[in-house]
Fold this sequence. Notes:
With 231 residues, the protein is of the alpha+beta class. The protein folds into two domains: 3-172, CATH 3.30.1330.130; 184-227, no CATH class. Helix content is 35%, strand content 23%. The chain is built from eight helices and eleven strands. The relative contact order is 0.13.
Amino acid sequence: MSDTIREVEKKIEENDLDGLLYLTGLIHGHHCVGSTMGVIAAHHAMKKLGIRESTGMEHIIAVVETNSCFSDGVQLVTGCTFGNNSLVYHDYGKTAFSLVKRNGEGIRLSRKQDIGDLLKDRRPEALSFSKLVNERDATPEEEARIIELNKEHCYNVLEVPAEKIFDVEEVKVDLPGYSRILGSLVCPSCGEKFMENKAVEKGDELLCPDCGGEYGALDWDGIHFLCKESE
């Protein structure tokens, strides 16, 4: 078990949400209410299911319903990531996630309606973080100040009980099978190796998705299925 997993496990056991938020900030790049909500939701789910840590071997699965800041808090606390195949993404655009055991049984937390005031920073000096993101016109000094104020506010948000922020329900989720180590093919067009299950058949050739022109892409706006025009 890595030192990082041990550290996260200890903070979960000791209900050290401040420490979990600090670690989330290291991977997220800053502190925001979205990632803070992810920490709160994931900590609650781990405690509720009696799970202490994740080995990254798919014994527990996190099913996130947004690719926003919220999911970074979930990944840090649960240890479920895209890279270790313990994170499933549903492109619903909801501040919600399910933590489930391998048999598909678990709990789902979803943001309650009309809780904006509960999580709102009421300080007159605090500028809107969403305005900073949407308008991108702040000076470096203004950006630094907004980020610092937001960080202070996020640690206050941690004091709000999870039950006041989220609806919690037991769920049964259909999960994909365990991941497998797959073979590779060499694309006859670009000469690069790629996973065999991603092959695009063009005539009698098996091309990589890039050269084959058929692939899915995930950006801030969600999942897009793209088809390049043939050159």
